[in-house]
Write a structure and sequence with these properties.
Elements: E1 9-14, H1 18-30, E2 36-40, H2 48-51, H3 63-66, H4 82-95, E3 102-104, E4 106-114, E5 119-126, E6 129-140, E7 164-166, E8 181-185, H5 189-198, E9 204-209, E10 215-218, H6 223-228, H7 234-258, H8 260-274, E11 297-300, H9 303-309, E12 313-317, E13 320-323, E14 327-330, E15 335-337, E16 340-343, E17 356-359, E18 362-363, E19 371-372, E20 376-377, E21 383-385, H10 394-414, E22 419-422, E23 432-433, H11 441-446, E24 453-454, H12 465-474, E25 481-484
Parallel strand pairs: 1-2, 1-6, 2-3, 4-17, 6-21, 7-16, 8-9, 8-16, 9-12, 10-11
Antiparallel strand pairs: 4-5, 5-6, 13-14, 14-15, 17-18, 19-20, 22-25, 23-24
Helix pairs in contact: 1-10, 5-9, 7-8, 10-12
Length: about 500
């Protein structure tokens, strides 16, 4: 690589969030001669952490594994606020020079592969102006959800509500909730995060859930890291603690799947110990599913449970009958008064930011395609997508994907190939399976908007970080890929 003609760039990365910036770092350190740029639709970098601004937004996993592996996390708190993460991402891009490659306000509208040119022609909306860029390889670091539209909450009668309705994805700047009665609809990570923070100022906060989820308290500061740091150099302390967070959560996930009843009892015991004495465990904290069939919600230092002890917050389980002008009426007959209703009901799935994708002018429906090693879309040459884990920190999966992509790019360069395209020799022998291995409502609703995974390699979904890293570094690049060398 290096000579970008006829393409403007060797690689164009779409999205300047965690995935895009990490891919850029891996690219510029693995293939320093490659020309690249990052197109970011928004006017700021950080992706999710730049978009979401609701009170208390934070990571829902430890920063030893969620942070970039090439820029170790050095803060004491291992669960970081959204503001801290935005700063970390900005600094990471700046100190590596990646920020000089980012073009903000550039939204990818269309991507059309030219077999003649062996490159992608990208139609871009650059702050309202039409622009065309060419790339030999495209990496979609846009995540899996729609930034412009939230998942419809479908709450009956919501249009009648006289107060304010807010979705966390589009939190109004300066929203005044002090002294107000707030109902948060949902039971996922966002609702669990919002309740204790809103309760600090609101008159009362109620988390209204159709069915409960699992909430697990975790310390915000790792004491083992503090202790090791007194005897070992920083780099060794970081390596040991990071390995701990790579291994133990993965083992706990396996334990939950292998011994669901024991896992349920374990989580229940921890929950009961933290609930106020006048608050029963059932039905508000007794999920219908087993631990890790849906993502566990974490509560740093038990902040969620501590809030329940103040008497200013509570949890209600029930089905909404209708929303009235002054609150919510449940099918049980109970009414919840509200000044503000927050619909924390999940994300709307979307791949590539809604970009229209073509091959030689023919439109491609990505939802009908399988993913090669969870990275490359079947029948699409020189295009990769970054999809992280649902049961582990996103960055781990993003990094495995980025290293796999860079290894493929080096292979193309070394063998003077111009394209690689995933091909399925016999589609009848591959059975479609869920791409994401959890059963959350918004995930089940969004499956139809995502590519497919298969039950046989190399089309299987992600499994574990260690196996994915092995595949990224040493796995076969020929199984399922068709290579071409075309003079251009």
């Amino acid at each position: 690589m290096g000579d970008a003609s006829p393409a403007t760039f060797d690689v164009i990365i779409i999205g300047a969030g965690i995935s895009g910036i990490n891919t850029a770092y891996r690219l510029q350190t693995t293939l320093p001669a490659a020309s690249y740029t990052i197109l970011e639709a928004r006017n700021g970098i950080g992706g999710t952490w730049d978009l979401f601004r609701y009170p208390g937004i934070r990571s829902d996993s430890d920063l030893y594994t969620f942070a970039f592996p090439w820029r170790p996390w050095t803060e004491q708190k291992i669960i970081a606020s959204g503001e801290t993460l935005r700063t970390y991402i900005h600094e990471s891009a700046a100190i590596t020079g990646i920020d000089q490659h980012i073009q903000c306000g550039h939204r990818l509208v269309s991507a059309d592969w030219s077999s003649e040119q062996q490159a992608w022609r990208l139609g871009v909306d650059a702050d309202g102006a039409k622009k065309v860029l060419w790339a030999r390889f495209v990496v979609l670091g846009t995540g899996y959800y729609d930034y412009a539209e939230a998942l419809p909450s479908n709450v009956p009668g919501i249009e009648r509500f006289a107060g304010q309705v807010v979705h966390p994805q589009f939190w109004p700047e300066g929203l005044d909730y002090e002294g107000k009665k707030v109902v948060v609809i949902g039971s996922g990570a966002t609702a669990v995060t919002l309740l204790p923070v809103l309760a600090e100022k609101a008159a009362r906060v109620t988390m209204l859930q159709r069915s409960p989820g699992y909430i697990v308290s975790v310390p915000s500061v790792d004491q083992s890291a503090q202790w090791l740091g007194r005897f070992l150099p920083a780099w060794l302390t970081y390596s040991i603690v990071r390995l701990k967070y790579l291994v133990l959560p993965a083992l706990f996930f396996k334990f939950c799947r292998r011994f669901p009843n024991a896992a349920r009892k374990m989580v229940r015991k921890g929950t009961v110990e933290q609930l106020p004495k006048n608050m029963p465990h059932d039905p508000n904290f007794e999920p219908r599913y087993n631990p890790w069939e849906q993502r566990l919600c974490i509560s740093p230092d038990g902040d969620f449970f501590k809030s329940l002890h103040t008497g200013k917050s509570d949890v209600v389980t029930g089905v909404i009958d209708t929303v009235t002008e002054t609150g919510i009426k449940l099918e049980s007959g109970r009414s919840l008064d509200a000044d503000i209703i927050i619909t924390a009901t999940g994300l709307k799935f979307q791949l590539a930011g809604g970009t229209h994708i073509f091959v030689d002018g023919e439109r491609v429906d990505v939802t009908e395609k399988f993913l090669w090693h969870n990275i490359m879309l079947q029948d699409l040459p020189n295009m990769a997508t970054i999809i992280g884990y649902t049961n582990a920190p996103w960055t781990l999966g993003a990094d495995a994907a980025a290293l796999h992509i860079c290894r493929l790019l080096k292979y193309l360069e070394a063998h003077k190939m111009t394209s690689a395209v995933p091909r399925m020799a016999d589609p009848s022998r591959v059975k479609a399976v869920p791409l994401l291995n959890l059963s959350s409502t918004y995930i089940e609703k969004g499956e139809g908007a995502m590519p497919k995974a298969g039950d046989t390699a190399p089309w299987k979904p992600r499994s574990t970080y260690f196996s994915d890293m092995w595949e990224a570094r040493f796995g076969s690049l020929s199984n399922g890929l068709q290579f071409s060398r075309v003079a251009v």
